[in-house]
Amino acid sequence: MTKWKQKEVxxxxxxxxxxxxxxxxxxxxxxxIILGAGLSTKFGEVRLSNxxxxxxxxxRELVNFPLQVVNTSDFAVELKIDVLVPKSSEAxxxxxxxxxASWIEMEKDSFILEPGQTAISDVLIKIPDDEKYFxxxxxxxxxxxTVGKGxxxxxxxxxxxxxxxxxxxxxxxxxxxxxxxxxxxNVNFSLVPHRFVLQNVxxxxxxxxxxxxxxxxxxxxxxxxxxxxxxxxxxxxxxxLTPDAGFTACPDPAFLSFSDKKFTVKGNSIKLVKMxxxxxxxxxxxxxxxxxxxxxxxxxxxVPVEVFARVYVxxxx
Length: 317
What we know:
Number of strands: 28
Radius of gyration: 22 Å
């Protein structure tokens, strides 16, 4: 049976005034983790206010916060994102269901995600040019879910988008500035393999993973543009991931190191990175099962893109 664990983080942000359009933006981030299914998103609830009729807005443009869904499982999944109009009884107080689902358009609504990969899609809000919407608030749901095949159970995450409309039209200056704004490109990459299983690792010595296990980390860039990547060894808590049965979080992420921590990967190419494990010579680390998390992030990207790999380590008695 699939177990659900939900962690909600409510962050009180200062009011952000969007200089070009005067939009007030509030973000309530809810991080939901589905155990077993392996989907995660930080796009829990987002509230926008002071949008103007006759205009089209993108979450990437407004706050560099497109919808991002991470595949935290150990297998590839097919992900679909649906725009759903909630029932009137389910709408949040002060808001009503969006009049038509066509008001919302996903930049991309279907993905094939390898383990650790992130789906990124801008959410476009298209408001009709009709003054009857002045001063109203609307709600729409974004349902990100796997497509069940065979015996696999389809699961999903619900994101809520709330927005209110100003009682005035956009000025000519606002429209002009908005057209000049440039959107951030949508890029992705992967770590291969996404899972390392290293057994009988000796403590008290520096272990070359390539020499002992014939394993290196491959950073794959399938884009035409080069990417600057930075690698991190991190704890489960930092990555907001859950441990597998029988394994505990690594005692110190620094025990896992890389031959290169920051590098550039040319377009349509692969970078090979060597890794080392170095446990201090202490009895408490012997005969244990630890899980390390590798995080790879794109540097210089306005919208953060992060991919994970897991390293399962069993130490010698």
